[in-house]
Specification:
Strand content: under 5%
Structural class: mainly alpha
Radius of gyration: 42 Å
Number of helices: 7
Largest sheet: 2 strands, antiparallel
């Protein structure tokens, strides 16, 4: 069979896919027939623009998906912050061996306020220590003939002073730091001022209630030395503790006030 009359598929004169002569040259090109089909004039149309558009859409879709994930994470983070602020977790976790209060500065207080909150916590532990030691000193005085009334007063100071100091000024400050509540800060300032007044009063121990012997202050220490040296020494140590607590409390009050003014 003579195929000399068949069309040459490699003849450049048949079709140039890169020519600008046709109207649709920018959008598609036509493959020539290589002579293997039954119809010698069959063509395959492949749009070039669709290939470019699909690559562009893939890039846009990837960018949109990454932006959506970023927004999703940001919304979830904000929801977690709002949830922690709106629904505070007050489960008792301190002290660990016998939990009686909720206390988690590292996870609930902002990082820039944690040092200040630890100082306030030290102030609260300080007043607890002062009241407990005051009970010990008054017990020594009672044993040396000071009377049972001052002992019962010292017990009342411990029973009421420790929980009330936590409820009236330490917990409001803790929640104020955690939720950034101006009302909590205002309550703290009023209650903490009374706390400082009590510390100064206890450090002086004026002869107002039962000759001042129910508080281990400087005036009670002077009176204690006239009765027994051991009583005077115990009361003198109590005076030092109440004095240190008063000074620490004044410093904490100043720091909290500066923090409160700076946050507005």
């Amino acid at each position: 069979m003579n195929r000399r009359d068949d069309a040459n598929p490699f003849d450049e004169e048949n079709f140039n896919p890169f020519s600008n002569g046709s109207a649709n040259a920018g959008s598609k090109f036509r493959l020539p027939n290589f002579g293997f089909g039954q119809k010698s004039d069959a063509t395959v149309d492949i749009p070039l623009d669709s290939i470019n558009d699909s690559s562009k859409r893939e890039r846009e879709l990837a960018t949109w998906e990454a932006d959506l994930k970023r927004r999703e994470l940001d919304i979830k983070r904000r929801e977690d912050v709002v949830g922690r602020a709106a629904i505070p977790n007050d489960d008792r976790n301190w002290p660990t061996f016998f939990p009686i209060i909720h206390h988690d500065i590292a996870n609930e207080i902002p990082v820039h306020a944690q040092r200040l909150q630890y100082l306030a916590f030290a102030s609260w532990l300080g007043i607890v220590l002062c009241l407990v030691y005051n009970l010990v000193a008054v017990t020594v005085c009672w044993i040396r003939g000071g009377g049972v009334k001052i002992f019962f007063l010292a017990v009342i100071y411990v029973i009421l002073g420790c929980p009330l100091s936590y409820l009236l000024w330490y917990r409001p400050l803790y929640r104020g730091m955690r939720t950034d509540s101006a009302l909590k800060f205002g309550w703290f300032f009023m209650a903490y001022a009374l706390h400082i007044v009590f510390c100064i009063f206890a450090a002086l121990a004026p002869p107002v209630v039962f000759h001042g012997n129910s508080l281990a202050g400087i005036l009670a220490a002077v009176d204690g030395f006239s009765k027994h040296v051991l009583v005077g020494i115990f009361y003198l140590v109590g005076f030092a503790l109440f004095t240190l607590e008063a000074l620490l409390s004044v410093w904490v009050l100043q720091k909290v006030y500066m923090y409160f003014r700076g946050r507005k």
